[in-house]
Amino acid sequence: MKGNAPPPLLRLIDLTVTFNGQVLIDNINLNIKSGETLAVVGGSGAGKTTLLRSLMGLKNHDLMTSGSLAFEGNMHDLSDHQKFGSFPKHSLAYVPQSPSIGLDPLKKLKWQWQQVIRVTRPKDREFHTNERRKLEVDFPKSILTQLKLKEFGEKYPHQWSRGMQQRLLIAFALAAKPKILILDEPTSALDPIVAARALLEVVKAARENNITVLMVTHDLALAAQFADRIAVLSSGKLIELGVTDQILNSPIHPYTANLVKHRHWGNSHA
Ligand SMILES: Nc1ncnc2c1ncn2[C@@H]1O[C@H](COP(=O)(O)OP(=O)(O)OP(=O)(O)O)[C@@H](O)[C@H]1O
C-alpha cells in the first residue's frame, strides 16, 4: 500500500538557518501528514522555535535562511521573503509560547476575536458578508465548550490567568480554521495536570475540526501522550523521527534513548 500513501500536507526541504556563520538549524527535511499530530521534542536551545518561525516564513533579519517548503504541492522558497509572500499564511495558525505576545492588553477579548476573523477571513469567498459578520459577533460556542472557556467576550486579558489566556489563544487559532495548528510549548503556562488535560482537549478539538497539529515541546512524556509521531531535535539537527511507539520503545539515536531513559513516565507509557 506504500505507493498509495497520500502526499504530505507540508514538506520542509533542506532547511538551514545560520547566525554569523553559526548553524542554528542544520539541513532539516521533514514531512507533516494531513490530520496527524507531530511533536518536535528537544532541549533548550535545540532550535525548536527557530524551526517553527522559519516554517512560517517569519523573517528575522539577523538570520540567514535557506531551503524550501512544499505546501499542498506548491513550492515556496524560504530564503526569499518576497517569494514566500505567495504562501497561503492563513493556512497556518501559530500559538506562541508566551500568551501575552498574542493578546492586546488594552482591548476586550471580543474585539480581539473580531480581529482574528477580519485578518484570517478577509473578503472571504467561503462566506457571505452576513455570515462573516455573524462569526465576528459569535465566537463558535462549540470550541469554547470544548476548551472549557466561558464568558470570554467582555473581559480584558489581565482578567484571565496565563493558562486561560493560552487556552483562549488556542481557541482563537482553532476557530480560524487553519489547516495546521502550530503550538510552541503549548503548556508552559499551565501546571502539569492542567497541562495534560488542556492539551487533550486541544488535540481532540483539532481532530474534530480536521486540523493537523505541529507542536514543539521539551517534554517527551507530554509529546508521547498526544503525538502520532515524534521528531527529536538536538543542536539544530533532526536526529530521529518516528511513530511515537517506536521512539519510546526502540529509539535508535543514543540522545533519544537517553531522553526516554531519564523521563518519569506516567501511566500511559510506563
Ligand atoms: N535571532 C537570533 N540571533 C542569534 N541567535 C539566535 C537567534 N534566535 C535563536 N538563536 C539561537 O539559536 C539557538 C536555538 O534557539 P531556539 O530559541 O530556536 O531554541 P529552542 O529549542 O526553542 O529553545 P527553548 O526551548 O529554550 O525556547 C539558540 O542557540 C539561540 O541562542
From TrEMBL:
GO molecular function: ATP binding
Compartments reported by the entry: Cell inner membrane
PROSITE patterns in UniProt: ABC_TRANSPORTER_2
Record key words, sorted: ATP-binding, Cell membrane, Membrane, Nucleotide-binding, Transport
Domain ABC transporter: from-to ranges: 10-260
Any single Pfam family the record assigns to this protein: ABC_tran
UniProt-listed InterPro entries: AAA+_ATPase, ABC_Ni/Peptide_Import, ABC_transporter-like_ATP-bd, P-loop_NTPase
Keyword flag Nucleotide-binding: yes
Membrane topology, from the record: Peripheral membrane protein
CDD domains in UniProt: ABC_NikE_OppD_transporters
Recorded superkingdom: Bacteria
Family, as annotated: Belongs to the ABC transporter superfamily.
Name of the featured protein: ATP-binding cassette domain-containing protein
